[in-house]
Amino acid sequence: MSRDLSDSTSPFVFDVGPVLREGTPQPFHRVGDAPERIGAEMIGIPEGTEVTVEGYITPLGAGVLIDADVSAGVVGSCVRCLSEVSDNVSIHVSQVFSAGEGLIVAVDGDEEDLEDDAPELIGDFADMTQAVIDQTVSTLPFNPTCERVGGGSCEAKESNVPAPDGISGEEERPADPRWAALAEKFGDLPETDEAEK
Length: 197
Known about the structure:
By secondary structure, the protein is mostly beta strands. It contains 3 helices and 10 strands. The chain has helices spanning 17-22, 129-139, 180-186; strands at 13-15, 26-33, 38-39, 43-45, 50-59, 63-77, 84-98, 104-107, 110-113, 125-127. Strands 2, 3, 4, 5, 6 and 7 form a 6-stranded antiparallel β-sheet that branches. A two-stranded antiparallel ribbon has the order 1-10.
């Protein structure tokens, strides 16, 4: 039994009936709330977050192509210090929907039958939610950190997390272990170059 999307308030559900009947592209711009959490485990667009969606619906005979730019705020947790991180994400989603047999589009100059690969319309409605989820997951970092999301730092949040390896301040080179006993007896000795070993 197919779903009824006629009363959906999701910004990712489109009534494409007029485009199919008139055969002309139609621009759209809408603002709505994310119908569910969208993203990976550590970072994503929370359910209910305001989402902006704009683009074009293009007729393809027995189907449509929806090109959409989606932007929204994302919230997650830093994998190093577990502090909350937030930022904005903008993605582009392009999805073909089939309205029945005979959906053919040109790909790289050659016609290709996409009927088997394209999701079907539900009545006159196209639901882009899954395409938005897939693109968001592939765009956001799998392991978000304060530095990668929002440009902050774990140290600035006083989280007692050590600096990542390789970017801490200058450190003294340890004395050659062969001179450790002499260093204890006579005090610090000059550093030994690797070439002298």
